[in-house]
Write a structure and sequence with these properties.
alpha/beta, Rossmann fold, five-stranded parallel β-sheet, 4 helices
């Protein structure tokens, strides 16, 4: 579904945004149609204005569910988009159903949710995108690595004599 979509939108806010940002940063090398929304100070709905039924949205949200993410999911469904939900429950809101739901536990021994399981699932999804993206995905990843090396984006320490 993700590889065949015209655009794959990815949305999350608050604590879930960190996972979405990581998935976008790494995943866009294997899936160049991946777009993180909202960008900057827009809302996800602003970014989805030109979306269509040829697109997919991945939404990441955990209890307590973000109203902004729920609204983006409902808006995406009204546009006919396919929806993939990464959450701690199959039923996040009664107003919509996802095409695919990936359920991950966020139970922790402290007050806040533990996102280690969700991050592991996103890493597996990235692995699948790279594998199924074939030589083209691997070539894009090499091109990003070459670009970063050529522009010295990584710090390289001097060896002690």
């Amino acid at each position: 579904m993700l590889l065949e979509a015209r655009v794959v939108y990815l949305t999350a806010v608050r604590a879930s945004f960190a996972m979405a940002y990581y998935f976008h940063y790494v995943g866009r090398m294997a899936l160049p149609t991946l777009e993180l929304v909202p960008r900057h100070t827009n809302s996800a709905i602003d970014e989805l204005h030109s979306a269509s039924a040829a697109d997919v949205m991945i939404a990441i949200t955990f209890n307590p569910y973000s109203r902004e993410t729920i609204d983006a999911c409902k808006f995406a469904r009204r546009k006919g988009m396919k929806l993939v939900l990464l959450s701690d429950s199959e039923l996040v809101a009664p107003d919509f159903e996802a095409d695919e739901t990936i359920i991950v536990s966020v139970l922790s021994t402290h007050h806040f949710g533990c996102y280690a399981g969700a991050t592991a699932v996103l890493d597996v999804l990235i692995s699948l995108l790279v594998a199924r993206g074939g030589d083209a995905a691997k070539a894009r990843i090499r091109a990003y690595e070459d670009l970063r090396r050529e522009n010295q984006v990584y710090w390289v320490g001097q060896k002690k004599r």
